[in-house]
Predict the 3D structure of the following.
Amino acid sequence: MLAVNNVTELKPVTNLIQSPWVCLDIETGAASDDAVQKALAAWKPPANIKDTDKIEARRREAETRIREKSALLDAAQILCIAAKTETQAVLFDGMSQEPTTIPNWTVLSCGSEREMLIAFRHWLDSVSGEQTILVGHGIKHFDLPKIRAAYVRHRLKLPYCLIGEQPVTDTMTLFRRFSVEHGDDYYVSLDTVASSLDIERHKATVSGADVPRLHQEGRYGEIALYCCLDVEVTARAYLLMSGEAGDLN
């Protein structure tokens, strides 16, 4: 496992050029109680259930599920965004202003979700063009909608490439073309992709489900590292499956 250490100075992002692809991943924290209550208020029982006791049981089940998975709600805070191109690897940290270092990554400690989004927009507008492919694992139905919603929530302009019909490659969808076992699976984990494609996966002591708890415990470095490692694996999977990896013969 790579170590995360405090540093006193961060290197600025330099030599910005338009990249053919940008690989992204985000980590989210638990939603506020107000957001959870709003989601609970919007819940409706299945139309075919009329029994009061059964409706109440379903409501309790829904409440438990919403609270446990509150990091998936639209209103849940984005804690960090990891982004990698052919030449850069940048982590945008919205959790803390304390400088952090991750080997081979530039870390921008922004201190808040809003400041993080502004920094990310500036960088993404600089490195992306109309043909830049946005890459991620589950990116179409999670990362991109969450990022767009966060900009709107903070009344910020979107990065240009998140406004229109930008090319997007979701490695979860792409992988189904490379697997008989998982070709019909609705959800395929990044660990499964890494194992199937024989991609080295650094041993992680946490998973995505642990992130809200780690955030509450102030273990920001572990979250940042986890996000970066996921992007490393996702980018490698994309390059292998798209035939662009430099070590292919």
